[in-house]
Amino acid sequence: MTTTIPVTLLFSDGVSRRLQVPCGHNLVESATAAGLNLLTDCSNGQCGTCTAQLVSGEVDMQEYDPSVLPDEDRDTGVVLPCVCHVSAPCAIEFPYDSTEALTEEPAPMPAEVTAIDQVASEIVRLELAIGETVVFEPGQYVRIHPRGTEVVRSYSMANVPGTDRLEFYIRIVPGGAFSSWLDAAKVGDMVDISAPHGTFFLRHENRPRLFVAGGTGLAPFLSMLRAVAADPATQQPRTTVVIGARTHGHLIAMDELEQLRTSLPGVAIHLAVEQGDGPPAHRGYPTDLIAQLHLDADTRVYLCGPPPMVEAGRSAAESIGLPRKEVLCERFT
Ligand SMILES: Cc1cc2nc3c(=O)[nH]c(=O)nc-3n(C[C@H](O)[C@H](O)[C@H](O)COP(=O)(O)OP(=O)(O)OC[C@H]3O[C@@H](n4cnc5c(N)ncnc54)[C@H](O)[C@@H]3O)c2cc1C
Ligand code: FES
Questions:
Q1: How confident is the model at residue 13 (pLDDT cuts 50, 70, 90)?
Q2: 133-188 pLDDT, tens per residue?
Q3: Of the residues 102, 119, 154, which one is the last residue of a structural domain?
Q4: Which ligand sits nearest to residue 44's alpha carbon?
Q5: Are 58 and 152 within one domain?
Q6: What is the CATH number of the domain that holds 65?
Q7: Number of domains in the chain
Q8: Which of 142, 150, 152, 154 should be mutated for ligand 1, with most atoms under 8 A from CB?
């Protein structure tokens, strides 16, 4: 007879669920079998989307990318449930409400490509028309599946919620499967998109914000800033935006950001460029600037971009006294 092990899943709305998991089974698969869809993306320890906190007991974690889960986080009980196997009783806390896990994944939505424009070096703006209004939180992402391919990749919306058009900024990765599809795609092509996902969304709280973006990691922040601008009645906290790019030619949406800066009180924008000539900007990484910004001790930090940038940002935030566990991260793996 297979031994089963009690596992308690705790959600941020206070709801808990207890599962009996056969010894050695994968945690996410066992939760799915019990009717709970835990948040995942890559399902093999490469993206950090599933990140959760082990509160008691232990789990066996299989191979994962250490840039997504550094040893210092693992030592404090942070786990990647997609690569966790259950071998002893444990309790795991998830940073989202139980309702997110209990809702069944809706059927994919068909979408038509309405624009593909190269807007900066190696960066394409993709616009999709959906037959219905898409509701999401600014900062969330969808999975896009081009029809006739096996490819499914995640991309963050840059537009405001509640429209039937979605806008994405996508870095072209040489040899990448989605990048190759996008390179040949044309207006009128069809894709299927998942429902919006993710816990990296704008928190409505009265504390200063720091947004740090690397490359196309600016996309979710564009959505957040646009949403804030569309809601002038609500007083927004001070927001510092730091944008990093390889060269000035890799920067996107600069004119619009300047408009947002002038129209939104309390928004400051800093640029960091690694190489090449151009308008004044910090020479180096966006995360270099964190220690120089004189941030308030209660600043909520949001980091989005390549995993090494996100890790550098977490360390920089920690070095000025901002707790790692309060930093919100989206890693574009
Ligand atoms: C939550 C989330 C949101 C995201 N949002 C965005 C976004 O808004 N914008 C954005 O630009 N990206 C975003 N990403 C990243 C995006 O999902 C993709 O990972 C990225 O676009 C690369 O996809 P691809 O299919 O082109 O490359 P992949 O096929 O996944 O390739 C990735 C790497 O593998 C290499 N490779 C591929 N095939 C081979 C091969 N046969 N041999 C050797 N090497 C190979 C490629 O050269 C490349 O370096 C997001 C990721 C996540 C997890
Ligand atoms: S879903 Fe677990 S690390 Fe990607």
A1: confident
A2: 999 999 999 999 999 999 999 999 999 999 999 999 999 999 999 999 999 999 99
A3: 102
A4: 2
A5: no
A6: 3.10.20.30
A7: 3
A8: 154
Question: Exposed (0-12), middle (13-18) or buried (19+): which is 217, by Cβ within 10 Å?
Answer: buried
171 domain-assigned: yes
Measure the CA–CA gap between 305 and 59, rounded to whole angstroms: 29
Whether residue 274 contacts residue 247, with contact meaning beta carbons closer than 8 Å, is answered with: yes
Q: Which long-range contacts (CB under 8 A, 24 or more apart) does 60-63 make?
A: 60/84, 60/85, 60/86, 60/87, 61/85
State in Å: Cα 180 to ligand 1 middle. Answer: 10
CA dihedral 283, 288, 292, 295 (to 10 degrees): 130
**Do 265 and 315 belong together in one domain?**
yes
Are residues 255 and 141 part of one domain? Answer: no
DSSP letter at 271? Answer: E
138 lies in some domain: yes
Ligand closest to the CA atom of residue 333: 1
332 lines ligand 1 (CB under 6 A): yes
Q: What is the pLDDT of residue 323?
A: 86
How crowded is residue 300: how many other Cβ atoms within 10 Å of its Cβ?
Answer: 18
Q: How far apart are CA 159 and CA 230, in angstroms?
A: 11
Residue 203 lies in a domain: no
Last residue of a domain, one of 80, 102, 124: 102
Residue 81 CA to residue 59 CA, distance in Å, equals: 9
pTM for the model: 0.87
Q: How far apart are CA 168 and CA 159, in angstroms?
A: 8
Per-position DSSP letters for 209-221, written without gaps between them: EEEEEEGGGHHHH
Domain identity same for 141 and 246: no
- Whole domain around residue 72: which residue ranges? 4-102
As a whole number of angstroms, the distance between CA 192 and CA 152 comes to 9
